[in-house]
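pinned: reference chain
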Amino acid sequence: MNQDHAARLIARLLALRYLPREDKEVRRLLVDAGFRDEVEQRLATNGLRLLAHPFSAYVGVALTRECESAVFEQNDAWQSSNLGLPKDAVALLVILWALIILPKRERQQSGESAQKEEQTEMFETVKLTPLAHEASRGIAENVLLEDYGKLLGGKARLQQFALPQLSRLGFIERKNKVIHEGPLLDLAFDYAEMAPRILQGALSDLLKQRGILRDVTLGELHNEEES
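pinned: its structure tokens
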């Protein structure tokens, strides 16, 4: 019996919310242009788009820009999340993305540049090198709570509600009182759109004071967009 592989992959992405790049069907998606076009077209007809950043270990789906208002605009107000996240949890998610993903991307960009001469595959099919796998580093919970607890409703609220909620949703993993990147953290925001806002905004000064952002530059963002 013939199988509709595109429908199968889309169903898995919707049900499971993310899949690793090592997955057999995902690998086909990344190397088979025709298969990818079919998947993206089917997603688009239902107001969805593929999330497959070359430096993320997972792929997922998100709303198209045109359909965001249909989901997020409720009762003349724009909802911060369709996952039931309160605003303080969304703010914490942004901070964790900035603390973990931005420095990780800097390390990945450095690793990618070093192996560029040996890279023969398309940018979308770039393999995660050992350096890239090791690039994501955790944040100690006590440091996060001390630095941002008062800004986000108090240490107790973050520890008892916000962090567990982000963990259940797959954005972070908590191990031995250290917060690590979860499968969905790298896909949570559009990097090319979000990174400049953080690097040029008030959060940038705070992160730089703590030595989190040192050499992350907007030039890297432009290079990534052009690739």
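why pinned: Confidence is low (pLDDT under 50) at residues 129-133, 214-227. The chain has eleven helices and eight strands.
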